[in-house]
Amino acid sequence: MHRYIPFLIMAAVVLIAIIAVEIFRYRIARKGRRSPFTPQIVRSPGQSLLKRLDALNGEISIQAAAFVALPITIYAAHLSYLYFGKHPFHWTGAMAAGIVAIVFMGYTLFKLLGFLDERRNVRLGCEGEMIVGQALNMLMLKGYRVYHDFPADTFTIDHIVVGEKGVFAVETKTRSRRTTTDRREDATVEYDGRALHFPKGTDIEMIDQAKRQSKWLANWLHQALGEELTARSILVLPGWFVRRTAPKGIPVINPKQLDSLFEYVQSRSLSPEMITRITHLLDQKCRDIEPQA
After folding, report:
1. What structural domains does the chain harbor?
2. Nearest to 148 by CA among 293, 285, 277, 250
């Protein structure tokens, strides 16, 4: 029985923490507190990535705590087994406990490093969407309506822009850059209308994804409004200079070029009534964030 004392102590600590949280929730409910914000909040740039980032931070905290606590617990259990059980010390038992601790630590470290890598990538994508979202928000000064992180069937459309020139599905793609002596060349991607040629590899999926999402948006608006509409694709690469080598293909630009793109893009006029109907649908779909305060 004594050998289980370390485990019982840990279980008691976890139980006390859970009880403390439930007491705190009960106190809030008893005082009748609730959020003062009755309407739901519109999604912000990178909303889905921010949610994933919060989840990853929680997983990282759990894995880091386990990485520290597990070997200590195994060591304490081994000492309890020797002391309370009055068993003599044997190197075999000590080595077995050490091997178990190393296995658990190795597995936990593997999981921890995986979560850290994923968090770095998610944070990179989130920052890219924020940069593009802030640039797109400036278009509202020119009468455009801008929506972020639009929830579709099994994916999200990073940004949607609606105005008198038409409907645009804007996809943001972030990609880290290598560091060499030629900083400008390292930050340049060539676009031939079909594929993106980065300094380290070629990518076609980014273009195809942007096209698929604009097609989905056009079909969704058609089903909701009962009228044929076109949604055009735009791919934005924050942090990259785009060198276009062919006139064909969808626009692929740096966020700094968004203002000039929407100034000179070919117009596919929408009536004020149609703009109102479209934005009403988009607002309803994007206003789904529950206040947490």
Report:
1. 2-16+39-129 (no CATH), 138-289 (3.40.1350)
2. 285
Tokens of 232: 């055009």
- Report DSSP letters for 106-167, one per residue: HHHHHHHHHHHHHHHHHHHHHHHHHHHHHHHHGGGGGT-EEEEEEE-SSSEEEEEEEETTEE
> What pLDDT digit, counting tens, does each position of 13-45 carry?
667 767 876 787 777 666 666 666 666 788 889
Read off the pTM. Answer: 0.81
The average pLDDT across 252-269 equals: 91
Taking the CB of residue 284, how many other CB atoms lie within 10 A of it?
11
Which tokens is 68 given?
A: 């520290």
Strand, coil or helix: what is 196? strand
Task: Note the pLDDT of residue 189.
Answer: 92
What number of residues does the chain have? Answer: 293
pLDDT of the residue at 261: 93
Q: Which amino acid is at 22?
A: E
Q: Are 128 and 172 in contact (CB under 8 A)?
A: yes
Mean pLDDT, all residues of the chain: 85
Give the Cα separation of 37 and 251 in Å (integer): 39
Angle between helices 5-30 and 47-84 (to 10 degrees): 140
Helices 205-225/272-286 angle, 10° precision: 110
pLDDT of residue 9: 66
Give the burial string for 212-222 (b: 16+ CB within 10 Å, else e). ebbebbbebbe
Rounded Cα distance, 101 and 95, in Å: 10
Residue 4: pLDDT band with limits 50, 70, 90 = low
pLDDT over 60 (residue 104): yes
